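Worked example 3 (structure in, sequence out).
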């Protein structure tokens, strides 16, 4: 509700103020005004509850009356606010402006969550709030605030999904967990869809002890159960059994192996002095305009490098059926399915946050920080993918009857 404040009132408030600190500082006018307004609101609420004005005789039949005040400290975005909370004799008064047991305003909670989402530890958040706002906040309070995120995760993880996703990326990121007194790796599974509007949409996150095709089958089944009827192209890494897991749920989905994963695996054991030359020659394979040209260039690559690096050409030949769909598309679609970089860019932003945190105490802690980090990354997804309309037209032709323009 917009309220017009008279200039005379503002003049009276700032009379005697010489600096900004006098107005908005820890001991400033704004803090005092906030305190007085809240206390006035609370008194008004009690008046409504009791049914009679302050300093007037209560109705005897109601048998209730004002009973002084109790002190309460509220944490705000700036600092602590000491309030006088009015009481009634029967203890029936339930204030709305500052509910019982509430020790902080929602805006303050959001500051804590925002810091947590950016990778700050509980002790770092505690120190930051003390330094900037001069507020002592216990680690347990910070943990309580961030625990509220779990309910948001559950709702988000179970929301209905679109019936068709032209492209979907699957990947996993490894994090460290410290359960049962020992540190071990956990796999966080991610599914990123490109919807019919060409916008990126993270579909969910799942945690398991290791990355495996069997667990991926569970993930893909859940995605189907949440309303997805068709995926045109699934972009994956080279995990054994993964294509079969997808085919078991979506038998008509085209599998595209991540070309960047192929390149990385190819270059693992290439010496520094050969690196640039091998990269240039390999580019002739995955940058080819047609599949035939790509095969010819792979043969040239093999004849030149097989004596020194035989595993590279073997890798491409072994996975050719999962690489070849790429060559059937024009550039506007190749740029989309060329790599799982769309999801790896998310992984990169998540890694920056978890790098300094060491091992997580449990799965719930992993979910909290991952969810918040991913939601931060998703804020940048405001525009459709470039040339999406052209790509969608191509999909409509290639996957006839499965795409409605």
């Amino acid at each position: 509700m917009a309220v017009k404040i008279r200039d005379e009132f503002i003049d009276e408030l700032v009379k005697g103020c010489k600096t900004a600190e006098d107005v908005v500082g820890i001991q400033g006018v704004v803090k005092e005004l906030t305190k007085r307004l809240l206390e006035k609101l609370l008194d008004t609420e009690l008046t409504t509850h009791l049914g009679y004005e302050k300093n007037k005789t209560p109705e005897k039949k109601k048998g209730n009356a004002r009973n002084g005040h109790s002190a309460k400290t509220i944490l705000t975005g700036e600092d602590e606010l000491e309030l006088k909370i009015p009481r009634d004799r029967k203890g029936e008064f339930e204030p709305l402006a500052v509910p019982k047991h509430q020790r902080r305003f929602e805006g303050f909670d959001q500051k804590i969550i925002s810091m947590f989402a950016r990778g700050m530890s509980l002790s770092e958040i505690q120190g930051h709030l003390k330094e900037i706002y001069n507020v002592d906040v216990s680690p347990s309070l910070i943990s309580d605030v961030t625990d509220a995120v779990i309910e948001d995760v559950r709702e988000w993880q179970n929301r209905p999904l679109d019936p068709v996703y032209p492209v979907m990326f699957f990947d996993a990121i490894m994090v460290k967990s410290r359960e049962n007194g020992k540190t071990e790796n956990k796999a966080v599974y991610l599914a990123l869809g490109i919807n019919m509007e060409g916008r990126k949409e993270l579909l969910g996150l799942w945690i398991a002890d290791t990355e495996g095709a069997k667990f991926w089958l569970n993930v893909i089944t859940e995605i189907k159960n949440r309303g997805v009827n068709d995926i045109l192209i699934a972009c994956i890494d080279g995990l054994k059994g993964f294509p079969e897991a997808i085919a078991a749920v979506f038998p008509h989905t085209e599998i595209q192996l991540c070309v960047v994963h192929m390149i990385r695996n190819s270059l693992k054991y290439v010496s520094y002095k050969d690196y640039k030359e091998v990269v240039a020659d390999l580019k002739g394979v995955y940058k080819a305009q047609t599949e035939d040209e790509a095969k010819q260039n792979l043969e040239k690559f093999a004849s030149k490098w097989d004596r020194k690096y035989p595993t590279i050409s073997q890798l491409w030949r072994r996975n050719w059926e999962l690489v070849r769909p790429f060559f059937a598309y024009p550039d506007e679609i190749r740029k989309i399915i060329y790599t799982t970089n769309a999801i790896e860019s998310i992984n990169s932003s998540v890694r920056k946050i978890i790098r300094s945190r060491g091992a997580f105490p449990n799965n719930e802690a992993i979910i909290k920080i991952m969810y918040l980090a991913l939601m931060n990354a998703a804020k940048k997804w405001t525009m459709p993918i470039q040339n999406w309309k052209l790509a969608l037209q191509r999909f409509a032709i290639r996957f006839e009857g499965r795409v409605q323009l």
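Notes: Residues 29-50 form the longest helix (22 residues). The chain has a mean pLDDT of 81.
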